């Protein structure tokens, strides 16, 4: 969920909305399958390593890492729709894996017995910890020294127009530049090893596939009383993306090495 859809006067249950708009997405962020696969193979995790995914979405990251490396994983997501998808994906693809999916707000998750993970991630949901820096700080505490921390985060490609900020109910300070995102991690004692940056085609697929998903849902569920709200929200999002977002907002996954000593509070 790269941009802010959690505020405003939108009355439709946000997790129902998210489930509808992302139904056909493999990954719930603007990253294509080829780039995702490239990143997974670059990580080269060891068998049995312990990986945490906060706001795990449909669980694709942990499932794919298990297929490649036989990792142990914990995925946390607040959406019952996502957790249902996670469990179904695990059943179909890695039924015997040691992956656990937990339905809860990520900010409330605490590792059992103060366990430290080998690696951790939060891809596109830094709002959970109050922002990007807060996300890095939270994951740092749960990740062993020398482990990897992966965070997906938007960045400004250019100065955002005031009308765009008003429409999205965002403050300019909500995001920095691509340089800022790397630098914040370095300030937190992390070393940036790699960035995977989405291009305009990645964004177009991510955004416009949501329009397609909404159309399919309404055709299949014509009597849903929420359809009008869904159409209104989709129309506003479409206009915002085409007028401003497409040329203003970037997105990347940042891979950091944790060189700051983890602290369990």
Short key terms for the protein model shown above:
single chain; 43% helix; 265 residues; 7 strands; Rossmann fold; globular; alpha/beta; seven-stranded mixed β-sheet; 18% strand; disordered N terminus
Describe the structure.
The chain has 265 residues and is an alpha/beta fold. The chain has one domain (14-258): Vaccinia Virus protein VP39 (Rossmann fold), CATH 3.40.50. Helix content is 43%, strand content 18%. It contains 9 helices and 7 strands. Strands 3-2-1-4-5-7-6 form a 7-stranded mixed sheet, with helices on both faces. Helix 5 links the parallel strand 4 and strand 5 (148-156). The two termini are 28 Å apart. Residues 2-9 have low confidence and may be disordered.
